[in-house]
Amino acid sequence: MCSLYYGVEAWALTETMPRKLEAFEMWVYRRMLKISWTDRVRNSTVLQRMGKVPEVLLTIKKRKLEYFDHVMRNTKKYELLQLIVQGKVAGRRRPGRRRISWLKNLRQWFGKNTKSLKK
C-alpha cells in the first residue's frame, strides 16, 4: 500500500475516487485474510477481523493538509505555487464545467474556506 500514496498530495480527487480507493483498501484486506471473492463477507466484518478502520482516505486527507501547510509556510520557495493555489493567476479559464480543484477537496473535507485553512 506504500506505493498507493506516492504523490497523493497533488491529487485532486473526483467524486468517484474515494469509493474506488476504499474498494481497493478492502480488496487488499480481503487478500491478506485469504477471503475468496465469491464469499459473502461484509466490509465491516473484514475491518473487524483486521482490527482496523478505513484508513486510506484519512491518510490522503492528512497528507494533503500537511502539504498545503508546507506550501503556505515557505513563501520564498513556493511563491508560484502559492499564487496558483490562491487562484491569483491572470488569464481566462477554459470553457465548460470547472474541474475539481485540489483546494476545493480540502475545503469540502474540512468544511472551511480558504482563509481559515491557511490559519
Separation of the first and last Cα atoms: 31 Å
| Structural class estimated from helices and strands | mainly alpha
Helix proportion of residues, in percent?
40-55%
Biggest pleated-sheet summary: none
Total of helices: 6
Shape: elongated
- Secondary-structure element string: HHHHHH
How many separate domains?
2
The whole-angstrom Rg is 18 Å
Protein name: Jg9522 protein
Topology, element by element:
Elements: H1 17-32, H2 43-50, H3 56-73, H4 79-86, H5 102-110, H6 114-118
Protein name: Jg9522 protein
Organism: Pararge aegeria aegeria
Structure description:
This is Jg9522 protein. It comes from Pararge aegeria aegeria. The chain has helices spanning 17-32, 43-50, 56-73, 79-86, 102-110, 114-118. Helices cover 54% and strands 0% of the residues. It folds into two domains: 2-56, no CATH class; 61-118, no CATH class. The longest helix has 18 residues, at 56-73.
Comma- or semicolon-separated keywords:
single chain; Jg9522 protein; mainly alpha; 54% helix; 119 residues; elongated; 6 helices
